[in-house]
Write a structure and sequence with these properties.
With about 120 residues, the chain is mostly beta strands. About 0% of the residues lie in helices and about 60% in strands.
């Protein structure tokens, strides 16, 4: 399996593995950047931080998740991840579980790149 790589304005992701009911991504977030505040109807996510510090917003509540720590994002929850560091790259492994993983299952609530 060749890994799918995608460059985004906030950083990049690489699909490491996928199956009928799961997808695993390595996500890199550039310093001081953040992904859109979003939710999904058909998948949950588990984020395990491997480098840096993630500022996670989950249903309006912010918390810091450090390297070696993780957070669960239930189906339908509004969520966002941000790299609050000014120099260090944030890297985390995202494991998605559910029955559909297409980009059209993303409902963007707020986005720094006008993708709402």
């Amino acid at each position: 399996m060749e890994n799918e790589f995608d460059q985004r304005p906030w950083g990049s992701y690489t699909v490491l593995d996928s199956g009928v009911d799961y997808k695993v991504k390595r996500i890199e977030v550039l310093p001081e950047m953040r992904l859109s505040y979003q939710k999904h109807a058909r998948r949950s996510e588990h984020w395990f931080v491997v480098r840096g510090i993630a500022k996670v917003t989950l249903n309006g509540v912010e918390k810091l998740v450090k390297s070696g720590e993780s957070v669960d994002i239930p189906v339908g929850s509004a969520h966002r991840v941000q790299n609050p560091e000014s120099e260090e790259l944030l890297v985390f492994i995202e494991t998605q579980t559910g029955d559909y993983f297409g980009e059209d299952d993303i409902v963007r609530i707020d986005d720094d790149f006008d993708r709402v």
